[in-house]
Amino acid sequence: MSQRRQLYPLVSVDVALFCVEDNQLKVLLVKRATEPEQHRWALPGGVLQPENDASLLDAARRVLDEKISVKVRHLAQVMAFSGATRDPRGWSIGMLFYALLPRDQLNAVERHKVEQLEWANAEAPGHRLAFDHAEQLRAAVAAVRQRVESDQLPLHLLPAEFTLTELQRTCEAILRKPFDKSAFRRRFKENPGLESTGRRTEGGRQRPAEIFRASSSFSRE
Amino acid sequence: MSQRRQLYPLVSVDVALFCVEDNQLKVLLVKRATEPEQHRWALPGGVLQPENDASLLDAARRVLDEKISVKVRHLAQVMAFSGATRDPRGWSIGMLFYALLPRDQLNAVERHKVEQLEWANAEAPGHRLAFDHAEQLRAAVAAVRQRVESDQLPLHLLPAEFTLTELQRTCEAILRKPFDKSAFRRRFKENPGLESTGRRTEGGRQRPAEIFRASSSFSRE
DNA sequence: AGAATAGTGTCTGTCAGACAGTATCGC
DNA sequence: GCGATACTGTCTGACAGACACTATTCT
Predict the structure, then answer these.
(1) B220 pLDDT exceeds 70?
(2) pLDDT value of residue A1
(3) Distance of residue B80 Cα from the nearest chain A Cα, in angstroms
(4) Is A218 a residue whose pLDDT tops 80?
């Protein structure tokens, strides 16, 4: 077994699943039910199954489905972690993905094959994580931030329809810095990634807000 | 054998080694000496050897050393490619790296274990490539461009000392668009990544140019 | 009217492209 | 002087932050 691992490394996928809740970027942690690192907090992950997975991306999708019954729209590679010491089972490769869960789908998350679930502050998870997952989490947060910084809007973290203020709060939560309302809105008069639904919010005790959605041709983050 | 591959995928690393020659971004291609895909052009690559490689990065370094006797300063992950069909040997993972070779080290490249070497235009290699290497090359070019675009200067493609004009020509070759000389230079009065050597070029039949080098604290691309 | 949030108009400083002009070498 | 390349100064338009202003709802 360990001899075979010398020739064929263990390959697993780990997923940093993000959401924005209470104006804070949060990541889903699971408490592991099995060895190794049983009872420790970790990113949801699993071993690649070449006979079942068409690709690493497909494996990540399967892991999310199996562990928390979630199908995400946005799932992308961050980077690979590798070496002999990062997993006690031997030389291993951990392919890290990040995924974004819209705020209105937080309740879709179900617990399977793990002891516990928690939405933790992505920048200060509050638990010591198993394996090299603390490092992986930092890399995933950096990847998401970089995309938002370079104008890839975090539309997949919002419901299908949203107001510009909601979009701004979400960006602010990810980058942890405030934006000027006027400048922020100005960027969308030109940005083809958004379009108005024509409708407005109702029932608030203030002026109604215009409701937007991602453009039909939209496929970016 | 193929049964084992079902459980443990083949893991290999491929490297897009870039240089800038004749004001053109070029990539090193090798003509494969062994099966599979014998006699076809490809990016230099090799199978991961967990018993010898401390990490995937280390494997990429070994491949470059074995195939072309080159030790590069800059080597970084691009992304992983995976699936059952990209390599005829079965379900496989190909970890793609890119590396940069300074112009003054082009002659250090030696041919080992391959039939032929060629510095090909990175955007139009002129050969049909083995495996999924055409797709990998496109991804690697995009990664390098993105880094140069976001102000990560391609200092590792230049000799240790260089003039601002050389730097500008190199950036232009990678991004394939001209820069305004004045604006380009202005960016370095502020950029701490560069410092002057105090010396100037000699022997040209024109005004001598100031010679720069990367700052001592430099570690970026 | 007042609170609350949505949304706009305008000023201003910064910065990048454009481009003309100057500097310094070999011949 | 002339050709060639290095380097600088200045104008200008685009744009982003700042911030005050208006708009529309509910109570």
Answers:
(1) no
(2) 45
(3) 8
(4) no
Q: Is the dihedral of CA B196, B200, B206, B207 positive or negative?
A: positive
B172: Cβ–Cβ under 8 A, 6 or more apart, which residues? B23, B178, B179
Q: Which residues pair with A19 in a beta bridge?
A: A26
Q: Give the CA A221 to C1' D10 distance in Å.
A: 42
Q: What does pTM read for this prediction? A: 0.93
> Measured between alpha carbons, how far is A78 from A165 in angstroms, rounded to an integer?
29
Strand B92-100, strand B10-21: pairing: parallel
Q: Which of A8, A79, A80 sits opposite B8 (nearest CB)?
A: A8
Which secondary structure element, helix H or strand E, spans residue B42, and what is its range? Answer: strand B41-42
Per the listing, tokens 């193929």 go with B2
* Residue reference for tokens 């491929």: B14
Q: What pLDDT does residue B204 have?
A: 80
Are B45 and B96 spatial neighbours (Cβ–Cβ below 8 Å)? no
A55-62 contacts: CB < 8 A, separation 24 or more?
A55/B82, A55/B83, A56/A13, A56/A95, A56/A97, A56/B80, A56/B82, A56/B93, A57/A97, A57/B82, A59/A13, A59/A95, A60/A13, A60/A15, A60/A95, A60/A97, A60/A99
Determine the average pLDDT of the residues in B177-188: 94
Please classify residue A7 by burial: count the beta carbons closer than 10 Å to its beta carbon, then call 0-12 exposed, 13-18 middle and 19+ buried. Answer: middle
Residue A167, both tokens: 């979009």
Predicted local confidence at residue A2, as pLDDT: 44
Nearest to B9 among A11, A77, A84 (CB): A11
| CB-based contact A95 B83, cutoff 8 Å | no
User: Is the Cβ of B1 closer than 8 Å to some Cβ of chain A?
Assistant: no
CA distance A118 to B177: 48
Say if the Cβ atoms of B8 and A11 lie within 8 Å: yes
The whole-number pLDDT of residue A152 equals 83
| B161 within 8 A of B210, measured Cβ to Cβ | no
Q: Per-residue pLDDT tens for A10-49?
A: 999 999 999 999 999 999 999 999 999 999 999 999 999 9
